Amino acid sequence: MSTRLVQVIVPDAMIETTRTLVSKHCRRYWQEPVPDDREKFSCIVQKRYVERLLSELNVRFGNMPEFCAVVIALEAALPTLDESAETALSEIPGLPPASRLESFFSRDRISTDELYDDIAESVEIRPAYLLTAAFSAVIAALGMRSGQTAVVIGAMVIAPLLGPTMGVALAATVGNWVLGRKALVTLGAGTAAVLLVTMALGYYIAVDASVAELRARTIVQPADIALALASGAAGVLAFSRGSSLALVGVMIAVALVPPLSAAGLFLGSGQTAFGIDALLLFATNLVCINVSGITMFLIQGLPPKHWRMTGGILLMWIIMLLLFFTMIAGRTFFA
After folding, report:
1. Which ranges of 159-271 does DSSP label H, i.e. alpha helix?
2. Considering only the top CATH level, what class is 112-334?
3. CB of 278 within 8 A of CB of 263?
4. Sequence spans of domains, the chain
């Protein structure tokens, strides 16, 4: 269901102000007194309007210690709130009206605060994260070495690097330097863990580059870029609708751990050329996820703090993608 229950607690002196504010962002709400001379407003809000409600609440009451706002997902509400042009709430004065494309894609998008909450654990360096990255690398490496596709898919589903990668794209879109720094550090730590574990594994076991699963991670073609861009965009759409990062199945197609694990195996076994090719596939997928991720977040109406900064970061990723495309196209043409 595309609605949220937003509970807002304010001091009694702000009741009339809150009632006026709430009525602009939802069509159904009720209020009740709570202890310590405060009032609680319970609002049923469509997903597309949660963003602007929380934003205005923060501007009006964010500095008040008595203020509190909680967002809760709803399974059902009767009577239902229909999503249509006739039921759309009026635009907020002073804010640019949403385009038709933005309105279409943002109708099911969760708010930025909910996205932050979903991504928070994924950008923290914890023992469980590093162990998950190491174990998924071992699973992927041994699955590719023995040519067992099902085992490799199992490692893809674990997807330990997906969370911080999404965090990097989200941070670049909204201009959150704190989130971006944490996501980059976590992504770097996970990448290092995968490489170190698989390089050690490759040093002690035989690695046959002719095995199809391993060989596939050393071949990068222009079509792989299109696949990575489409998969990254689909993954961001699923994530921004509230899907668990562990269940974003579309991201299996643009997995990060298998090519990184293959690179570690090859480098550990002394097959440097194959290792570099696998690293190129990993880097290409990573760049594509960020390009398509930032683009889809913007299409869905995520509000950047500074358009110039967000545009500059997106341009940087696009330039890197063009460099990779030129390199891959040249190698494919002259092969």
Report:
1. 162-174, 177-204, 212-216, 222-240, 257-268
2. mainly alpha
3. yes
4. 3-97, 112-334
174 closest CA partner among 68, 321, 313, 69: 313
Query: Crossing angle of helices 162-174/177-204, nearest 10°?
Result: 150
The side-by-side arrangement of strands in the sheet containing 68-73 is: 28-34, 38-46, 3-11, 68-73
DSSP letters for 139-158: HHHHHHHTT-HHHHHHHHHH
- CA–CA separation, 151 vs 222, rounded Å? 27
Enter the pTM of the model: 0.80
Amino acid code (one letter) for 22: V
C-beta of residue 326 within 8 angstroms of C-beta of residue 306: no
Written as one letter, the residue type at 314 is L
DSSP string, 243-256: --GGG-GGGGGG-S
> Could you say which architecture CATH assigns to the domain 3-97?
2-Layer Sandwich (3.30)
Give the pLDDT confidence of 89-103 residue by residue, as tens digits: 766 555 555 555 555
Q: Are 112 and 173 in contact (CB under 8 A)?
A: no
Determine the angle formed by the axes of helices 272-299 and 257-268, rounding to 10 degrees: 160
Name all contacts of 324-328 with Cβ < 8 Å and 24+ positions apart: 324/225, 324/280, 324/283, 324/284, 324/287, 325/222, 325/225, 327/280, 328/220, 328/221, 328/222, 328/224, 328/225, 328/280, 328/284
Nearest-angstrom CA–CA distance, 48 and 138: 42
* Tally of CB atoms within 10 A around 235: 28
Q: What is the CA radius of gyration of the chain?
A: 23
Buried b (16+ CB within 10 A) or exposed e, 255-294: bbbbbbbbbbbbbbbebeebbebbbbbbbbbbbbbbbbbb
Give the confidence band of 250 by pLDDT, cuts at 50, 70, 90: very low
Contact between 2 and 47 under an 8 Å Cβ cutoff? The reply is: yes
Alpha-carbon span 182 to 177, nearest angstrom: 9
